[in-house]
Amino acid sequence: xxxxxxxxxxxxxxxxxxxxxxxxxxxxxxxxxxDFQFEYGLIGHAAxxxxxxxxxxxxxxxxxxxxxxxxxxxxxxxxxxxxxxxxRPEQGLLKVRKELGLYTNIRPIKIFDELIAASSxxxxxxxxxxxxxxxxxxxxxxxxxxxxxxxxxxxxxSYSKEEVxxxxxKAFKAAKNRRGRLHSIDKANVLDSSRLxxxxxxxxxxxxxxxxxxxxxxxxxxxxxIRDPKQFDVVVTGNMFGDILTDEAxxxxxxxxxxxxxxxxxxxxxxEPVHGSAPDIAGKNIANPLxxxxxxxxxxxxxxxxxxxxxxxxxxxxxxxxKGFRTLDTADESTEPDKILGTNEIGMKVLKALEAKTPVSNxx
Length: 364
Ligand code: NAD
Hints:
Blueprint: E1 2-10, H1 14-32, E2 35-40, H2 45-51, H3 57-64, E3 68-73, H4 77-81, H5 89-99, E4 104-110, H6 123-126, E5 130-136, E6 146-148, E7 153-155, H7 161-177, E8 181-186, H8 192-205, E9 212-217, H9 218-227, E10 234-237, H10 239-249, E11 260-264, E12 269-273, H11 290-302, H12 307-322, H13 343-355
Parallel strand pairs: 1-2, 1-3, 3-12, 5-10, 8-9, 8-10
Antiparallel strand pairs: 4-5, 4-11, 6-7, 11-12
């Protein structure tokens, strides 16, 4: 099988982590006899520096003609420090999502047993938590009308019925195939857009009688997520609420460096770690590449239907964690100092685990 994969490293730790992801994909191609062609494109600050825009036409064309996309992260401190800059890295990310119609962002949130000690939450709260988040990605307040002057500013949160229907339907289907429970998160006590969201969920619920639906306000959801994450199975929510809640939920996975994501619409899928460009650790070879590596597992499964290869990647990650290897963000007091590794070294351990017939026993 022959697939074209667009690689958009972006900024900060983006290149370091996508390099590890590409190595895994190359390994999988060799081992399973697939032919993956990798083509690189610019996005974010890296693109602004070279072309003046955060998403050059060339990158968009590359993505439109690819079978899947692997993205690192975008963002640079110069924009974070200067909010008045009009051309910004994140515009590249928003545009690629919009242009490719990637309206559903799927984020599996689950802790590997080996990382339970790395989380700031209690082991008994975490053990067994397994959540599938559906975040709306091309609508809501990040795409609504906005304006500002020196005295005031506004952003608009708007959703059409169709925008809500298409993602909520996907979430219902997922819940039906999992534990049959769907939490829809909104702020319907205050916002009109949330009242529309809730009414669409209620309408669709009739078509999925086997799924239990729970409506929850976003402020309560923020609290419930860390109080008792096991109550959640599938969660569906709008763009901004999902952005915030999934960063919070990264603590359920042990670290932001562990959370992969898949952005899908009706055609090509884009896979990226949930974290940003982490300028505080960029260039130091200490970023955790496992979120990106787990994103390649999502790609293999969702875009190419290579379920066995996808499972192998997940098992290889599990195997190196079992062996005690960690990056700094997931290390705790029980981690042996010589098992705290850099980005490249952890990436190499994953390759070694993939190579091994019985990955856990062959890693040293
Ligand atoms: P961030 O996710 O980059 O970092 C938050 C914290 O988590 C930092 O302390 C960072 O060091 C740590 N971290 C993140 N990823 C890690 C990894 N793989 N391994 C170890 N530690 C990791 O978020 P931020 O600091 O709020 O934003 C930094 C920049 O990234 C900003 O410019 C922001 O706009 C951008 N951003 C981009 C995306 C994206 O590209 N999808 C998402 C969020 C933020």
